[in-house]
Write a structure and sequence with these properties.
CATH topology of the largest domain: Cathepsin D, subunit A, domain 1
Bound molecules: 2-acetamido-2-deoxy-beta-D-glucopyranose
Distance between the termini: 47 Å
Radius of gyration: 23 Å
Strand content: 25-35%
CATH class of the largest domain: Mainly Beta
Number of domains: 2
Largest sheet: 20 strands, mixed
Helix content: 10-25%
CATH architecture of the largest domain: Beta Barrel
Shape: globular
Low-confidence stretches: 1-25
Oligomer: single chain
Number of helices: 5
Mean pLDDT: 92
Number of strands: 32
């Protein structure tokens, strides 16, 4: 046998021995996708998964800072594959569920809208979610032993119509990102792309993620560290670190000029107070009162020719619509920059995301006054996230974020035609 012949033989052996592995890995989804719709009545972002046996669709409000998926088990929960979690079991430990009743561990399902909570059992059941190739949803895949929490009907108070629980995306071991990454050996990353309509998405796993116009929305990301707030005071989780996503805003600029503010408020103190977090359950960005007032002052004086009109709640600063021009990226107003770890890493908020039109004549600054001594000084709300791609990397504890996708003639609008 010549050298060339033995080389060919070696190659074909390699191909034969490799192909079964390739076949196996191709069964593993590359990423998973949830469709996200904005509920216009409540301004919540709602998604749907399938759960139980037989599988039924379950509508959930998306809570970026939620520590677990919980559903109302009081009404309509029927499943032949339901299992409870015994106190001290691996599932209870993973869920950090220390309470024990009747041999079953439990925790407090938390409703961040009405701030109600109660005690509920940890349960385990089948969960089903669609895979994606980054463009279209593909076949559904199932997690046979998905850990979740049972809520009660009264905890649903304030949630959007048809919603039966909360989809927690926080950085706990039992929130959706961690459980799905573990079940399918995905990268511990997920992307959030909120749309003002019904075709936004959450993608678990790595990109690229293509929008309806075939634009890879993860193409131009900037990165900033994610911080852990060591103190969590959400009901039922006292004394544990927060599972919410904090970033390090170091200053706020309006049209490139620093807004004078008390820098102490921008860092998290020993009691867990202060700093900046991202939220999908606050419809608008909430600012500690002195920051709010300074921003409004800077914003209004940066457009002296625009008349102020009577404010419309929940907003405190509204302007005459007729005085403001519009472009493809929304109203022409001063640019608001959240400056992060250095002056080159800036989260910019343009008119489309900073302004909210009320009726026919008012354009309001879409930020709200959070009063004195709020727990968190800056809570970046959902309206300010629309049509931006945010990628949360849990493994490296960093956030990738795009500028407004509208600049690229792209949006958080995805193709939900299944190619399964
Ligand atoms: C839980 O599963 C058991 C065993 O299949 C079944 O008997 C019971 O009815 C189920 N409970 C619910 C609430 O579906
Ligand atoms: C800045 O904020 C901190 C924290 O709320 C407060 O203790 C301090 O008095 C403030 N400083 C000024 C100058 O207002
Ligand atoms: C959505 O995806 C389907 C399947 O690939 C394709 O046939 C369809 O043209 C796409 N829709 C748009 C608007 O691009």
């Amino acid at each position: 046998m010549s050298v060339a012949q033995s080389f060919l033989l070696l190659c074909s052996l390699l191909i034969f021995s490799l192909s079964p592995i390739t076949a196996q890995t191709s069964l593993r989804p590359k990423a998973l996708v949830l469709r996200v719709a904005k509920d216009t009545a409540t301004l919540q972002y709602v998604t749907q998964i399938k759960q139980r046996t037989p599988l039924v669709p379950v509508k959930l409000t998306v809570h970026l800072g939620g520590n677990i998926l919980w559903v109302d088990c009081e009404k309509g929960y029927v499943s032949s594959t339901n299992k409870t979690a015994r106190c001290g079991s691996a599932q209870c430990n993973l869920a950090n569920a220390k309470a024990c009743g009747g041999g079953i561990c439990g925790a407090g399902p938390d409703n961040p809208i009405s701030n109600t909570g109660t005690h509920g059992d940890i349960r385990i059941d089948v969960l089903s979610i669609q895979s994606t190739d980054g463009r279209n949803p593909g076949r559904a895949v199932t997690v046979p032993n998905f850990i979740f929490l049972c809520g009660s009907e009264f905890v649903l108070q304030g949630l959007a119509s048809g919603v039966v629980g909360i989809a927690g995306l926080g950085r706990s071991k039992v929130a959706l990102p961690s459980q799905l990454a573990a079940a399918f050996s995905l990268k511990r990353k997920f992307a959030l792309c909120l749309s003002p309509f019904d075709d936004g998405a959450i993608v678990f796993g790595d990109g690229p993620y293509y929008d309806l116009n075939n634009f890879d929305v993860s193409k131009n990301l900037k990165y900033t560290p994610l911080f852990i707030n060591k103190v969590n005071t959400a009901s039922g989780f006292l004394g544990e670190p927060s599972v919410e996503y904090f970033i390090g805003v170091t200053s706020v600029h309006v049209n490139g000029k620093a807004v004078p503010l008390n820098k102490t408020l921008l860092s998290i103190d020993n009691e867990g107070v202060g700093g900046t977090k991202i939220s999908t359950v606050n419809p608008y960005t909430v600012l500690e009162t002195s920051i709010y007032k300074a921003l409004v002052q800077a914003f209004a004086s940066a457009m002296p020719k625009v008349a102020r009109v009577a404010p419309v709640a929940p907003f405190g600063a509204c302007f005459r619509l007729q005085d403001i021009g519009f472009t493809r990226i929304g109203p022409v107003v001063p640019q608001i920059d959240l400056v992060l770890q250095n002056k080159n890493v800036v989260w910019t908020i343009h008119g489309q995301n900073s302004m909210v039109q009320i009726g026919g004549d008012a354009l309001c600054l879409g930020f709200v006054d959070g009063g004195v001594n709020p727990r968190t000084s800056i809570v970046i709300g959902a309206r300010q996230l629309e049509n931006y791609l945010l990628q949360f990397d849990l493994a490296t504890s960093r956030l990738g974020f795009s500028d407004s996708l509208l600049f690229e003639r792209a949006t958080c609008t995805f193709n939900f035609t299944s190619i399964a």
